Amino acid sequence: MTDSPFHGVIPPVVIPLTEKKQLDLEAFERSINRMIDAGVDGLFFLGSSGEVAFLTDAQRYHVLQEAVAIVNHRVPVLAGIIDMETLRVVDQAKRAKGYGVDALVATAPFYALGGPKETERHFRAIREHTDLPLFAYDLPVCVHTKLDPTMLVRLGKDGVLQGVKDSSGDDVSFRWLVLENEDAGHPLQLLTGHEVCVDGAYLAGADGSVPGLANLDPYSYVEQWKAAQAGDWNRVKELQDHLARLMFLTRVVKATVGFGAGVGAFKTALWQMGVFNTNQMREPVQALEGEDVAAIVEVIKKAGLMDADAPIRK
Amino acid sequence: MTDSPFHGVIPPVVIPLTEKKQLDLEAFERSINRMIDAGVDGLFFLGSSGEVAFLTDAQRYHVLQEAVAIVNHRVPVLAGIIDMETLRVVDQAKRAKGYGVDALVATAPFYALGGPKETERHFRAIREHTDLPLFAYDLPVCVHTKLDPTMLVRLGKDGVLQGVKDSSGDDVSFRWLVLENEDAGHPLQLLTGHEVCVDGAYLAGADGSVPGLANLDPYSYVEQWKAAQAGDWNRVKELQDHLARLMFLTRVVKATVGFGAGVGAFKTALWQMGVFNTNQMREPVQALEGEDVAAIVEVIKKAGLMDADAPIRK
Amino acid sequence: MTDSPFHGVIPPVVIPLTEKKQLDLEAFERSINRMIDAGVDGLFFLGSSGEVAFLTDAQRYHVLQEAVAIVNHRVPVLAGIIDMETLRVVDQAKRAKGYGVDALVATAPFYALGGPKETERHFRAIREHTDLPLFAYDLPVCVHTKLDPTMLVRLGKDGVLQGVKDSSGDDVSFRWLVLENEDAGHPLQLLTGHEVCVDGAYLAGADGSVPGLANLDPYSYVEQWKAAQAGDWNRVKELQDHLARLMFLTRVVKATVGFGAGVGAFKTALWQMGVFNTNQMREPVQALEGEDVAAIVEVIKKAGLMDADAPIRK
Amino acid sequence: MTDSPFHGVIPPVVIPLTEKKQLDLEAFERSINRMIDAGVDGLFFLGSSGEVAFLTDAQRYHVLQEAVAIVNHRVPVLAGIIDMETLRVVDQAKRAKGYGVDALVATAPFYALGGPKETERHFRAIREHTDLPLFAYDLPVCVHTKLDPTMLVRLGKDGVLQGVKDSSGDDVSFRWLVLENEDAGHPLQLLTGHEVCVDGAYLAGADGSVPGLANLDPYSYVEQWKAAQAGDWNRVKELQDHLARLMFLTRVVKATVGFGAGVGAFKTALWQMGVFNTNQMREPVQALEGEDVAAIVEVIKKAGLMDADAPIRK
C-alpha cells in the first residue's frame, strides 16, 4: 500500500433525475450521503455510469458543482473528463479543476482512429495542461482501445499518470499491470472497475475498486475491502458471491441492451429501494417499465436490499 | 433525381493549420475557392476529415463562422454536429444553425452502449429540436454502430431525415438502402462516402458523393459526376481508376495509422501542392515527416497533381 | 482479359438433400444442368454455400465424385479445400485432385491465431504439394483474416496463386487488388463473391463472379456478364437491381441468422421453384418453416422466379 | 466438490517434434511422465495448445494412441474433438472413443455463421452419438462464439454436458456460470483455461484448471490447487504471481504473434529446459530463433526453471 488517498471503494456515482429529467438534488444528496456513511473511500463523478456521455457541458458542471458541495471534503472527489480527442479533454480538465475536484479521470482518444503513439501522446498532452492527479480510464467497450500495461507504467514512472481505473474486463492484462507496476515501485494506484470479480482483483493486488453496484450496496463493498485488507479471503469471496447475485438485476432486463439495461437497472433498483425518486434516464434512453421493473425488484428482494413484502413503486 | 439541393460532389473540407497549429485562414479560403471553382456541388464542414473530434467547441465554431463567410452562398454548406449522445448533439445543432449552415449531419450515439431503439430515438429527438435538413452519417469505423437501411428509410418517410452520408464501406447495405429508398419515393438523398468505389455507388444509384480526396483533385470528381449523369460509365470508371491510384498516398505512410495516416497524407499532399502552407495536425496526432512525405510526393507526382521535377517542400 | 479458363459466372453450388438429409442426386443433377444450360462459365463445389464445413470428409468426396461425373467437362470445376491449418488443407488438396477437379480454392488458416507471415507461408506450403491452379478464398466473416492485396499479387507473380475469390465485402480492398494485379501483368483471375454489388465489381475490373444466388437465377447473372463484356452498363445495373431485389429473400428470415438464414433461404427457394425436392439442412442447422417459407415465396414470386398463383409446397 | 474424476490441474499437453517435424515420442513420454509425477489430476490432448488445428486426422490419432498408452490410466485422459461443424465433430468423437479416452472436449461450431439455436443443437447432436463425458470448450478467440452460461447449465442439467473448459477470458461470465451451476446442483465441472488468473478462478469456485503453462511448471500449479483446497489463499496468490511472471515468456516474442508466439514460446522453453529435444512447430508456423530464444531463456532463468549460468541450447 502507498500513501495515496485514492484507494479502497470509490463508487462511480449514478445520477438521480426528477420526472422532468432534471438533476434531482434531494435524491443526489441522499445517495451520496448514504455511500459516505457506509464508509466508501472516495466518489467518482461523471464516469460512464454517471451519464457523462449524455450530459451537455452545462449539465456536467452542474453535477460537479453540486457534488463537490455535498461531499464537502469528506472523501476525495474524482471527475471524469471524457471527450473525443485531446484538446476537448484538456478543456474539460481545466473546467473540472475550477470546480475543486481532487483528481481527473481520462480515457484514450476515441471517435477518430489512432494508434499507440497517439494514445501515449494524448495522456502526456493532458498532463502538460493540469497539475491534478490523473487516472487513465481503460474502458475498451466504449473507447475501442485497450490500454497497454507497459505504456501505463511508463506514464506512471514519468509522473504523467497517478493511477488507472481498469474497466477492461481483461484480467490477464490487469495482472501484467499489477506486476509491472510493482516492479516499477508502485507509481500507479490500480483500481478495478469490476463489479462481480472484485475478489480476484483484490487477490491479484488491486489498490481499490470502482463498482457501479456500490450505489446500491455500499456496505458490502466496504466490508469486502476491509476483509481483503485483513486477509480474510473467505469473507471477501462470500461477499462477492452476494454482490454477484445482486448484479443479476442487469441480466433480467428485456426491453433494451447496454447502458439502458445496466444503468437503467441500477436506477430502477435505487428508485424501488427509496434512494431515488424515479428511474428516469437521459435521451435517447428510456426508463425501464413493467416486467423489467418487476424482475429487478425480485432480484433485489432476494439479495435482501428490499423487504420481501414491500410493494412495487409505480 | 429529386430537386434537393444536396447532390453531386460535396467534399468534406480538410482544415489547413499554421505552423502554430491555428486555423490558417489564407489557405482555408484558397482551398475552398479552389473546390468551388472546380464545380463542386456543396461543402461539408466539421466531418471526420474536418477534424471535428479534435476541436474544442470554440474552435469548431470558429471554423464554421469562417467557412460560411468564405462560401458565401455559392454552394450549400453542411455541418457536422458530432458528439457522444443526444443532448450534446442537440446543443451542437442549435449552435450550428446560428452560424447559417444549410444542413446538419449527425451520427448515431457513441461511447455509451445502446441498441436500435436508442439509435432511432436519437435521430427523432434531434429532429424535435431543429428544422434544418438532417443527414444521418453512417460511419461504423468511428461510431461502432451500423445504421440499418430499413430504419433510415422509415426516418426519411417520417420527415426526420433528409439524407444519408454512407461511409460504412458496406456496399451491400448501401444497395438495400438505395432500393428501399426508391420504393418509398426517394425521401432521402443518398451520398456515398467512398473515395475509391464511387463509380460503383453511382451505378447503384447514389445521389452524390462526399470524398475527402476531392480536396486534392476536385476536378476529377466533378467530371466523374457529370459523366455519371450522362451515362458515360467507361469515363466514370477511368476517372475512378485515376482517383484510386491517387488514393494510394494514404497507403504509403509508415509512421502511424488511422487519422494521422489518412488525413495526414491529405494535408501533406495539399501542402506539397501549394494549397496548404503546412501539413500540421491537431494533438495528439503528429505531422508526417521525412520518408512519408517523400512517398506521398511520389504518388501525387505519378497522378499528375504535382510537377515531376518539383522539389519537395520542407 | 487473359486466356485463363476461370472467368465469368462461376456459381458456388448449393447442395440438395433428401428428407433423410442425404445428398439428393436427382436434384443435384437437375440443378447443375440447369446452371450449365443457362450458360455459366464454371462451377464451384465445396464452398461455404456448398456446405463444406458441415460435411464429413466422406460426404465431401461423395459430393465431389458425383459433381465431376455430372459436369463431365462441360465447364471447369473448382473445389474448396477448406480446413483449419496447412497440413489438413494439403490433405484435402491431394484428395480433391484425385477426383479430377480443375482448380482448388483455399482460405487462410483459421481457428489458431496467426499473423501475415503464417498466412503467406500457408499458401506457399500448399503450392509445394499440388500442381493444380490455386485460388485464395478471401472470406473474413468465416476465416477472421482479411487477405492483403499486396500479398495476393506477390503470390500471383510467384506462381503460387492463380486467382482470388473475394468474398470480403471490402470493395476498397478489391479495388487495390485489381489495380495492383493489373500493374503486375494480371497474374491473378479476380472473382467477386458479391451477389448484390457485382455490377460495381465488373466496372472495377473483376474477371468474373461467384454468386450463390446464381443457383436460383443463373440466367440473369449470365446475361449480366455478357452485358458487362459488351460495355452495356445500364443493362448490367438493371439486372443487378433485379438480382438485389431477389436477394431480399435472405433478409426476410426470422427464425435464425447466418448460414441457416442465407443458404437456408436459397434452399427453400429452390425447393419452392421445383429445382430441389426439399429444403433440408445439415446438422446443427434446421430447415426453414412456416412464415419464413411464405415470406421467401413472396420475394421469389415478386422477382418472377415463381408463378404468382402457384401454391406453397409443403 | 463433486465426485467427478475431472478436477484439479489438467494441463493441455504441448506436442514435442523432432527436427523433421514428426512426433518426438521420447520427449512426449518424458513430458507426460514429468507432469504425472508432479501430481497433475488429468491430461488434455488435442486441445488448441496441443496442435489440434495443425494435425491431419492421421496425425491426431497417432498422438492420441501414443498418449493413451503412455498415460496408461494413471490419470484421466481428455481428448479434443475439434472440427468445424456437427457431423465432422461427431466423426471425431466416434474415433477418439475408439482410442480409449475418458472424456471428450468440443467447441461450438465454427467457420459457418450461426446463432444460439445452432450452438445448443450442436452439443445435443454430439450427445446423441456418444456416451463419453463431454466438456464444452469456450474459446471465443478461436471459435468466435461466446458460450452463454445459462445455456451451458441447461445442457448440464439435461445430461448433455458434464463440464466446461472456460478459456473465454471473460471472468464475469465465468462467475455467472459458477453461480448458476451451483444453483442447479453442480451438474458441470468447471475448469478455467486461465494461466495467470487461476487464483481468482479458484476463489470464485472453479473445479480445476487447464493451464498450458503447466507443461513448464506443473509443480507450482499442483501446489496451488492443493493450497486452494486448504484455503491458503495467500499461498495461492504467491504461486500465481510466480506463474504470471513465468508467463512473461509469451510477451517477449517479437518474430510473430498468436499461436507461434504463445505455444512457440512454450516449446522453446521446454527445449531449453531439456524436456523437449527441439522447438519445432507445424506448418505454417516457424520455430522461434535467435533473440526470441534468448529473451525466453532470460524469463525462465529469472523464474528459476533453468540454471542461471546454463548456456542457451542451439
UniProtKB/TrEMBL annotation, chains A, B, C, D:
The active site is at Y137, K165. This is Dihydrodipicolinate synthase family protein. The lineage of its organism: Bacteria, Bacillati, Actinomycetota, Coriobacteriia, Coriobacteriales. InterPro entries: Aldolase_TIM, DapA-like, Schiff_base-form_aldolases_AS. GO terms for molecular function: N-acetylneuraminate lyase activity. Transmembrane segments: none annotated. GO terms for biological process: N-acetylneuraminate catabolic process. SUPFAM superfamilies: Aldolase. Pfam families: DHDPS. Belongs to the DapA family. GO terms for cellular component: cytosol. Keywords: Lyase, Schiff base. Pyruvate binds at V210.
